[in-house]
Design a protein that fits this description.
- The chain is mainly alpha-helical and 413 residues long.
- Helices cover 81% and strands 0% of the residues.
- Helix 3 packs parallel to helix 5 and helix 9 packs across helix 14.
- The chain is globular, with a radius of gyration of 21 Å.
- The relative contact order is 0.14.
Length: 413
């Protein structure tokens, strides 16, 4: 375990490659349907399959690789992840056939997923103490939202359906730049996550750990619920916002405000949370507070009546919930890893499973059920239902809560 100063210095290049890689990812995501349909002239079925392949692989692609990852150098794995994404998008510029296109998008998405998993595993390995980890993961969330605020602007600016390959080549160059950062770190000998004496990850071992760890079981349930609720921000909410405004710029402004708010206040808020954690506050309390803020945002949405000012308030409250939830859930999985004989890759694979499950189901419900409720009843009813479900879930989790387990290599602060 590194000292706090050494860990902060060592994490910097990881944050740099992270923001470069995910800027490319967010540059592609909003324009990918148009790029496929109008730029690469693909039929609707291929567009749907390609979008499904990219969405699934970018969330869950690293899960299938987990047995191979444990104990390997995090720096080299990040180098491989960026080369995989960069190579896939570069080759995508050279093909217009359906099968290679889908395969390459899946490969590129897997590199994205692998990047997210390994960065979190390395940060957990390099930092000690719950408070320090919350702050480190908060910086990751800032980088992610910085990428989310800049990436779409780059993607839309570079999109030209008459010359679609230009955007793909620029994205490939972005991933190769992120790979170059990791190559410099590797050549410097700063290898980071090195093989240790923990056992290699296996899915059977993970399920066994779930059976014996009440904390991990409750954490995975809490995480899945949280990501289910978070998915409403990019499924039901955009549909609702477009129904309340004819201005695409105004709709975009809600999400831009959310990203800017995270960039501005995530680290100060997380430092405050870290101090409270060091004084004995339980991680699960912070997670439940984040979920409660999601519920509060749904209540504001239900009462908004489509009023733009109230909608900005709702999005701001939802964003505050994300500010508390996102870095804290990473810290909780890190704590579960430190308290067991499992590797951080194993425990963060569990987090990836909850992320993929929660967001996938949340997006499905947020699209189909919201439309059904809106068209046949009232959009406010959907938001009331979301608030009620969240309140019931938080109450159930609080009632049966299990405190964070004692870490094997450091005491619980």
């Amino acid at each position: 375990m590194r000292s706090a100063r050494e860990a902060e210095r060592a994490v910097r290049p990881l944050l740099l490659q992270y923001v470069i890689a995910f800027t490319s990812r967010f540059a592609l995501a909003p324009v990918l349907p148009v790029l496929l349909k109008d730029g690469l002239q693909q039929p609707g079925l291929v567009v749907g399959l390609a979008l499904f392949a990219f969405a699934c692989s970018s969330r869950a692609g690293s899960i299938v690789l987990s047995p191979w990852l444990a104990g390997r150098s995090g720096v080299r794995l990040l180098l491989i992840a960026n080369l995989l994404s960069g190579g896939a998008f570069g080759l995508l510029a050279l093909t217009s056939s359906a099968v290679p296109l889908i395969v390459l998008l899946a490969a590129g998405g897997t590199g994205v997923s692998l990047n997210g998993l390994i960065v979190r595993s390395v940060v957990a390995e390099w930092t000690s103490g719950t408070g320090s980890q919350v702050t480190a993961f908060a910086k990751l969330n800032v980088m992610l939202n910085l990428a989310a605020s800049v990436g779409p602007l780059i993607g839309t600016a570079l999109l030209d359906t008459s010359a679609p390959r230009r955007l793909l080549l620029v994205l490939a160059a972005g991933y190769l730049a992120a790979a170059l950062v990791m190559l410099v770190v590797a050549r410097r000998g700063d290898e980071g996550y090195q093989p240790d004496d923990r056992r290699r990850f296996s899915f059977r071992e993970h399920w066994g750990l779930l059976r014996t760890s009440p904390f991990l079981r409750r954490l995975m349930v809490t995480s899945t619920i949280g990501w289910f609720l978070y998915a409403q921000l990019y499924s039901a909410l955009p549909i609702y916002l477009f129904s309340t405004s004819d201005s695409k710029l105004q709709v975009a402004s809600y999400f831009t405000m959310s990203a800017v708010l995270i960039v501005l206040v995530q680290v100060p808020v997380s430092k405050g949370v870290a101090r409270l954690l060091d004084r004995g506050l339980d991680l699960m309390t912070v997670l439940f507070t984040g979920l409660a803020l999601f519920a509060a945002a749904f209540v504001v949405l239900a009462l908004s009546g489509g009023n733009p000012v109230v909608l900005y308030v709702a999005v701001a409250v939802f964003t505050l919930g994300e500010i508390l939830f996102a870095p804290t859930v990473d810290s909780a999985f890190a704590a579960a890893g430190e308290a067991s004989s499992s590797s951080f890759v194993a425990t963060f694979t569990g987090k990836q499973i909850t992320l993929a499950t929660g967001e996938s189901i949340g997006a499905l419900i947020g699209g189909s059920v919201f439309l059904a409720v809106r068209d046949n009843l009232s959009p406010a009813l959907y938001w009331w239902l979301c608030a009620a479900v969240t309140a019931v879930a938080v109450a159930a989790l609080v009632t049966g809560r299990v405190r964070i387990p004692v870490r094997k290599n450091s005491p619980v602060s």
